[in-house]
Amino acid sequence: QSALTQPASVSGSPGQSITISCTGTPRDVGGYNYVSWYQHHPGKAPKLVIFDVSNRPSEVSYRFSGSKSGSTASLTISGLQTEDEADYYCNSYTTSGTVIFGGGTHLTVL
Amino acid sequence: QVQLVQSGAEVKRPGASVKVSCKASGYTFNSYFINWVRQAPGQGLEWMGWISGYNGNTKYAQKFQGRVTMTIDTSTSTAYMELRSLKSDDTAVYHCAKERVSFTITAGFDTWGQGTLVTVSS
To answer: Which of A37, A66, A108, B71 fits A11 for a cystine, CB–CB 3.0-4.6 Å?
Structure first.
């Protein structure tokens, strides 16, 4: 099964908002509300920032939000800060009972 | 606090096997699934499989079927991932990650191990 499709890179200036897309199929993203997003700084463990499409762990900033339409999920980061610069990955539960990740998106804060 | 602590870095020859451990603490081990995820140099995250902390049931990614075995030891709250017939492109950082919801797979991994670097080289 191929990875979920994410843009390789996005960029924005401090204070701006960006959106990262994550496109799958009806067998994964489109079939369940089990899409999560992770922030990954090199050399550190990934950090869960959104679960179940649009829910945010209590320790994650309100600037992070998620949504889904059909088989495409999106992560929006508002009020960009320099520390948001990282790699971002989506993942989804699938009809096969497995989990699939997106290819990852590098966010540059200019 | 909830924590997953993994075993140290390994260097293996092609064709060998590696077994990585992941010791859990701070939560009820047998109520949650543990997933294994790897990241090769310059590549993205890749899901390898999950194992139930309750009964040891497993589900593996098709890519690793026949080459990976995931096990648990409930007496020590430890999960293990063994990968056999290693190739150079198995060189990666291997993470264990705890499922967020008890007795359920939601693909929400709320706690991650620190990662174990496995290097496969002749």
So the answer is: A108
